[in-house]
Amino acid sequence: MVRTALRVSGSAMVKPFLWKIALSIPLLFQALPADAFVPHQYQVTDLGTLGGTSSLAYGLNEAGDAVGIAEDSGGISRAFVWSDGTMTALPDLGFGGVAYDINSSGDVTGAVDTGQDYSRPWDGRSSNVDNVALWQANQLINLGNLGGIPRGEGRKITNDGWIVGTASAPLPAVPEEDIWQRAFVAMPGDDALRDAEAFPDDIRSYIIDLNGAKQAPGFSVSDNRGGPQATQAGRWQFNSDGSVQSIVPLKPFASGQTSVALGINEAGEVVGRSAAADGQNVTVYWGANQTSPELLPVLSDNPGSYVRAWQINDSSLAVGELRDATDSERFATLWAKDTDSWNNIDLQTLIPDDSGWDLSGALSINNSGQIVGYGTFDGEQRGFLLTPESVPEPGLLFGMGAIALLATRLRSKSNTAG
C-alpha cells in the first residue's frame, strides 16, 4: 500500500485526523528553529532494470550517477551503473555481481560471483563465493579476497581511489579459519587488499564507508558461533600508506549492548545503530570526535528489530530504513538535525501522492541531497533516485517536514485502531 501524509483507512477517521494536524501546526512552527535544512518535495526516478523484474540502488556520486544490483532478462542479478537515464550492466565473471559505490571519476566498487559454492563446515549451508570488484572505464578488476573464502565486497570508493569493505581471511588457531570476515583497505593503483584489523581479541571486523580524512566507521565482532557475541562500533583512522593508525571505540546507547557504525561524513559525524537497555534496536549518531551517541528518533511507535541509519552527508542529513514490529510496513527515512535535536521524516510524504511508489529503504545520500534506495513501483521492487525539487524558507520547510512526521505517526495509530 502506498503511504501518504494525509490519507488514512476509513472515511470516518479523516476529520479527526486532520483536526489533530490542524491543532498541531502552530506548536510545530513555534518549537522548531529556522536553521534546519530539509527539502520539502522530491522528484522520484525509477532506475529500471536490466530486462528483469527487480533492482536496488546502493550508492551514488555527486553527479547523481547511481549503482546497485538489477536482474537481467535471464534472471541473473548483475551489478549496474545508472547515468543520465540509462542503466548499464557492469562486466562480471558470468555469474552476476553487485555494485555498492561510485566515485567522481566513475570508478565503481562491489563484488562479483565467482560461480563457485562453499559449504560451511559447522552446518552444511551452501554459500556463493564472491570476490571484491573494482570497475574502471567499464573494465572489471577482480581484487579477490584476503586469502580466504567465501565472501568479499568493496563497499566504499573515495574520489582519490581508496577502497574499503570486508573480505574473508584465514586466521590462525580459529576453527574454519578461511571464512572469517575482516575489514580491508585497498590503495589506488595497488590490487592488494590489506587487513584493517579489529579490536583486540575480536576475530571479525566490518567497514562500509570512508571519508577524505581516511576515517572509517565500522564494527568489530567476537566469535559468536555457539554462544553470545559482542559487537563494538569503532572509528578507524588510516595512515597515508594504508596502515591502521588507531581504532577508537564508539560507545553503545546503553551499557553492555551492541553498537554498529555505518556511515560518516567529511566532518567525522557518524551514524549507525545500537540497542537500548531492554535490547530494542535503536538508530544513533556520534558527533565528530565524540564517542558517546545521541538517539535518532524513528517514525514507528513500535519499531521492529531492523532499524538502520546508513549514511550522512556534509549537511548532516542522514538516511536509512526501518521496519515495524511485524515487518508489515517499511519506511525510507530522512533524519535532519536542528539546534537541539534530531527529527525523522518519512520520505514517502515528500514525493507526489500519485507517484505509484512505496518507498522501503534509503541507502545513500550525496551532498546535493539526492537519495538512492529501493521500494515498490507498480508492484515490482525497483531502485529509485530522489532529487530535491525545491527548498522553501528554512523555518517553513522544517515545519512542513515535522507536519509530515506527525501525520505519519497519527496515520499509523489510526490504521492500527481501524
Q: Could you explain how this protein is built, in words?
A:
By secondary structure, the protein is mainly beta. Helix content is 10%, strand content 47%. The protein is built from two helices and 28 strands. The protein has helices spanning 14-31, 394-417, and strands at residues 41-46, 51-60, 66-72, 77-83, 86-89, 97-102, 108-119, 126-136, 139-144, 152-157, 163-169, 180-186, 194-195, 204-207, 215-221, 231-238, 244-250, 259-264, 270-275, 281-286, 293-296, 303-312, 317-324, 330-337, 342-346, 357-365, 371-377, 380-390. The protein has a four-stranded antiparallel β-sheet with strand order 1-28-27-26, with no helix packed on it. A four-stranded antiparallel β-sheet has the order 2-3-4-5, with no helix packed on it. A hairpin with a 5-residue loop joins β18 and β19 (270-275). α1 (14-31) runs antiparallel to α2. The relative contact order is 0.16.
Fold blueprint:
Layout: H1 14-31, E1 41-46, E2 51-60, E3 66-72, E4 77-83, E5 86-89, E6 97-102, E7 108-119, E8 126-136, E9 139-144, E10 152-157, E11 163-169, E12 180-186, E13 194-195, E14 204-207, E15 215-221, E16 231-238, E17 244-250, E18 259-264, E19 270-275, E20 281-286, E21 293-296, E22 303-312, E23 317-324, E24 330-337, E25 342-346, E26 357-365, E27 371-377, E28 380-390, H2 394-417
Antiparallel strand pairs: 1-28, 2-3, 3-4, 4-5, 6-7, 7-8, 8-9, 10-11, 11-12, 12-13, 14-15, 15-16, 16-17, 18-19, 19-20, 20-21, 22-23, 23-24, 24-25, 26-27, 27-28
Helix pairs in contact: 1-2
